[in-house]
Design brief:
Elements lengths: L18 H54 L12 H10 L13 E5 L9 E11 L2 E10 L20 E9 L2 H5 L5
């Protein structure tokens, strides 16, 4: 009564996976994995861009805070109608002799996100200064090193022309002396 496996006959009603079903399942699995991997790559790119933006924001804030500090140290001019405190701030910045603070004198600097990693991209961090009476107008831009045209038209709403431009910021610094040294009536 016992049947061996070799002598067993299969009926036509028994079904299994056909070759077509196996191929379709492999293709569906492949497409799912490819979509997932694309999302992983996109997430890594977004993380890198966020790190760049964060570093640029930190550099700009550090630089503008230093200039605000210098502005708070300016002394009053004897002339009650004096309105050149912004130029005084630029002169104060240019007269820095401290080796640790010399980097603040430079209007263009090259920085790295991770200074100890030789594979990290380098960025050019640029500051434009304009003395306008008592207000020092600062325009900061940061782009990939060597791409001098990246932030050339930051006022444009067309960001597709900003290839390589990480960020552009405008800051105004008014030295404390401009407020503290008003003529007494």
């Amino acid at each position: 009564m016992s049947k061996t496996i070799l002598s067993r006959k299969f009926s036509k009603t028994e079904e299994g996976l056909t070759l077509l079903e196996v191929i379709v399942s492999i293709i569906v699995t492949f497409l799912f994995l490819m979509g997932t991997l694309q999302l992983v790559v996109y997430a890594a790119l977004a993380r890198i861009q966020a790190e760049e933006q964060s570093a640029v924001t930190r550099w700009i804030r550090e630089d503008s805070d230093f200039l605000k500090y210098l502005g708070s140290e300016l002394s009053c001019n004897a002339d009650p109608n004096y309105d050149q405190y912004a130029q005084d701030l630029i002169n104060e910045l240019n007269s820095i002799n401290d080796s640790e603070l010399n980097e603040y004198k430079q209007d263009s600097r090259t920085k790295k996100l991770k200074p100890n990693n030789p594979a990290t991209r380098k960025y050019t961090f640029t500051r434009e200064k304009v003395a306008n009476d008592n207000t020092l107008e600062l325009k900061y831009s940061a782009d990939f090193q060597g791409d001098t045209t990246a932030c050339s038209n930051p006022d444009s709403n067309d960001t597709s022309t900003w290839n390589g431009c990480i960020g552009v910021t405008y800051v105004e610094v008014v030295p404390n002396a401009a407020f503290d040294c008003v003529p007494s009536s």
